[in-house]
From TrEMBL:
It is found in: Cell membrane. Coiled coil: none annotated. It comes from the Bacteria. GO terms for cellular component: plasma membrane. It is a multi-pass membrane protein. Belongs to the UPF0060 family. Keywords: Cell membrane, Membrane, Transmembrane, Transmembrane helix. Its main location: membrane. SUPFAM superfamilies: Multidrug resistance efflux transporter EmrE. The chain crosses the membrane at residues 7-28, 34-54, 61-79, 91-109. It comes from Erythrobacter neustonensis. This is Uncharacterized protein.
Amino acid sequence: MPTLQTGLIYALAALAEIAGCFSFWAWLRLDKSAWWVAPGMVSLAIFAWLLTLVDTSAAGRAFAAYGGVYIAASLIWLWSVEGARPDRWDVIGAAICLAGAGLILMGPGRAS
């Protein structure tokens, strides 16, 4: 699977996972209606399905590499949705995680 396609899958998965988790956060921490949970559960199911589309020989490898993308996407969510700008330590940490994700996913013999 081309790297661009994998990156797109991971980006969509991150959006789905963060939106799904945020729906629970909104319900339980921001006093939103319990109805927020229903679309959140659908979003989390879409997240899980998207990760199955990553072309790798093992689920754990797909999940591990996704972790770096999730961290970076969470900081984008922090800034764009919650209005809190990430600091330099957030950005440096996310860059390190993305580099690690790339190593995990693109090492020799990783595709199925």
